[in-house]
Design brief:
single chain, mainly alpha, 14 helices, 0% strand, disordered N terminus
């Protein structure tokens, strides 16, 4: 190799600056926060006219196919090794099939803002809990206190209505659906991290999207009312715009970024998107859907987000 090849001219080096790795990661993280703070509004619009299983199943199946085609065009591997097949199916069912189904049906009965706050406050705690259980991260008394604070937030959020006898059981069911979705997604995320030693983030994203999406589609056609009729695709422009937004930035880009950050930062640190996404979701919910929040709702949300912040606060050395 010649000296001219090793040392490029100063003018060339200045004309092609490279963004440092940390800066790139932060920009990706910011993009993730904004997009995942707005997907709640898009999901709310879509499931108003399309069965949730069909709406999500078609989105994730298409996303998986496009990502795997992208891998193939670049000459990268598409199929995983046989020893990872079972774990990959389990991760796909947890993150996509169960996660999306319970989330969307839960979203039918609660506001987009409340769903976002419950999900985003619980995500870092559940990611941490599963990471500790699988031996990927450590645990501390401060994190135990964070879980307790989160429980207090839930009590403040639903307690007054429960004790007053005015609690809407459908709202409780919706909240439980969002909680179940969060636990499924967090468990799948932690289980996916060891596979990234051998699978590229885009590859694992495409595979999980495709497997989970196809299972959702089959289940929707078999059990979901109105699923076959929705195959005519006459959803209306609002549902289609929501679907396209969820497909491109929400699935193709953000999920790939999510896996990249889990690989580089770890599961619990990546979960810090919880600090920003719910604020965006609440603002959009109040603006577009006229969703109302009282002081009890706001207090409960703040306590839950405070619990997430306490759990993710770096330890002092």
């Amino acid at each position: 190799m010649s000296a001219t090849t090793v040392a490029a001219p100063a003018a060339v080096r200045k004309s092609a600056p490279v963004l440092p790795t940390l800066a790139r990661a932060r920009w990706m993280f910011a993009f993730l926060c904004v997009v995942w703070g707005t997907t709640w509004l898009a999901m709310k619009i879509g499931i108003a006219t399309v069965p949730p299983g069909m709406f999500a199943g078609l989105r994730w199946s298409v996303a998986g196919v496009l990502l795997l085609v992208f891998c193939r065009v670049r000459g990268e591997r598409v199929l995983p090794s046989p020893r990872l097949a079972l774990r990959l199916v389990v991760v796909s069912v947890l993150m996509i099939t169960l996660g999306q189904l319970t989330q969307l049906y839960g979203l039918k009965h609660i506001t987009a803002g409340l769903a976002a706050v419950i999900n985003c406050a619980l995500t870092p705690l559940s990611l941490l809990g599963f990471a500790v259980a699988f031996g990927q991260e450590g645990f501390s008394p401060r994190q135990l206190g964070a879980i307790g604070l989160g429980v207090v937030g839930v009590v403040v959020l639903f307690g007054p209505a429960a004790f007053g006898g005015t609690l809407d059981m459908w709202e409780v069911a919706g909240a439980l659906g969002v909680i179940a979705a969060c636990l499924c997604y967090s468990l799948g995320s932690v289980m996916a991290q060891p596979m990234m030693r051998t699978l590229a983030p885009v590859q694992i994203t495409g595979l999980t999207d495709l497997i989970g999406g196809v299972i959702l589609l089959v289940g929707s056609l078999a059990f979901e009312p109105g699923a076959w009729r929705s195959l005519q695709l006459d959803w209306g422009w609002a549902a289609w715009l929501s679907w396209l937004f969820l497909l491109v930035p929400g699935s193709l880009i953000s999920t790939t970024i999510y896996f990249l950050l889990i690989r580089d930062w770890g599961a619990s640190k990546t979960g810090t998107y919880a600090f920003i996404s719910p604020v965006i979701a609440v603002i959009l919910g109040c603006t577009w859907f006229g969703e109302k929040l009282d002081w009890g709702d706001l207090t409960g949300m703040v306590l839950m987000l405070g619990a997430a912040g306490l759990a993710l606060k770096p330890r002092r050395r």
